[in-house]
Design a protein that fits this description.
47% of the residues lie in helices and 0% in strands. By secondary structure, it is an all-alpha fold.
């Protein structure tokens, strides 16, 4: 995430030892406690938001509000809900059986012809 290598990490540890000295364990403990409290507050805020939105938004995730995640979710994830409405995997009920998606033709076989489509 921060792209910190082993060498940079060693330098940071040495700097922390020089700056904080004997107080380093107390500083690390306080930092851990602060991070835990922030995480609890974020989870509590998320729960309050979901409770306030009601049961319609029970699957709501705050990360979905990020524009990058929104595009990934709605454009790049497979969503076959629109196929469930029709017959034989077709979107519309009035499509003939041969219009179903995924029909493969054998070598030399002619594709079906629809007089109403021309």
């Amino acid at each position: 995430m921060f792209d910190v290598g082993i060498g940079e990490m060693a330098v940071l540890v040495v700097l922390a030892l020089v700056i904080f000295g004997e107080r380093l364990p107390q500083v690390a403990q306080q930092a851990g406690r602060t991070l835990r409290q922030i995480r609890q507050m974020a989870n509590s805020a998320k729960a309050d938001l979901q409770e306030g939105l009601g049961p319609e938004f029970k699957d709501f995730d705050v990360a979905d509000l990020n524009p990058k995640r929104f595009v990934q979710k709605h454009l790049f994830e497979d969503d076959d809900d629109h196929r469930a409405a029709g017959v034989n995997g077709s979107v519309f009920d009035d499509e003939p059986d041969y219009a179903a998606v995924g029909t493969d033709l054998e070598y030399g076989e002619r594709p079906p012809f629809d007089n109403e489509a021309t």
